[in-house]
Amino acid sequence: MKTILLTVVVLLTAISAQAQFRGGDSELMTMITAGTATTTEEVTVGESTGSSDRTDKFAYLSINYGYYFARRISAELELGIRAEDGIRPLHTGIVNLSYTHLLPRSFIALYGRAGVGVSNGLTSPDHLALSGRMSEYDVTILQGGAGMKIRAGSRGLFRVELNYRHQAYTYEGPSATVDYSIGTLAVLIGMGLLL
User: Fold this and answer.
1) Which helix (H) or strand (E) holds 69?
2) Whole-structure pTM value
3) How many CB atoms sit inside 10 A of residue 80's CB?
4) Residue 17 phi, psi dihedral angles, 5° rounding
5) Does domain 2-194 have CATH number 3.40.50.720?
6) Can you give the pLDDT of all 195 residues of the chain as single tens digits?
7) Could you give the C-alpha distances from 137 to 4, 76, 164, in angstroms and in order?
8) Cβ(138)–Cβ(1) under 8 Å?
9) What is the dihedral of CA 111, 93, 22, 20, to 10 degrees?
């Protein structure tokens, strides 16, 4: 009896999971992570150039809305807030393109995504006091991620992703030009709903 019941539950889960990731479907997710950010700074003053590297801790929380405009292919809007030691929170907006592949007879789907966006500040302090919030959204963000979505019931979703994000900003002052390049590698964990 237990074997029959377990088989029915697995089949129902697999059948309901097959209904997701089609054109017209959508997802609403909350993602969170904490990790480390490695900062590389290159400073040019006149003919002299110097560089430095630093690693800092950070936390990131986002709300993601994804719309499947074709089978397995979705556009995601990611609105996030990022905090780092000693800096006021920064805001990000990223548009991602995602591909999701449901494993056969399973409630697990593998996915990959890539995106581009902006932020209103860098996530690392620097000696020119440019850290923290800036008045404009002029920091460029490129990101890529891969992971899995785990179906929980008829509408629930858990998501785990290995994410790489790159931020770039150039400051041109009266006597110096500073190019900032910040790369982060983190595991994002999230939960959400299929709408």
Assistant:
1) strand 48-70
2) 0.76
3) 21
4) -70, -30
5) no
6) 566 555 544 544 444 444 467 888 899 999 998 877 676 777 777 788 878 777 777 788 999 999 999 989 999 999 999 887 777 788 899 999 999 998 988 889 999 999 999 998 775 443 333 444 466 788 899 999 999 999 888 788 999 999 999 988 887 778 878 788 888 888 899 999 888
7) 57, 19, 20
8) no
9) 70
| Count, residues in the chain | 195
Q: Which amino acid is at 154?
A: S
Q: How many CB atoms lie within 10 A of CB 64?
A: 22
Tokens of 190: 């999230």
Domain borders along the chain are: 2-194
Neighbouring-strand partners of residue 110: 101, 148
CA pair distance 83, 90, nearest whole angstrom: 6
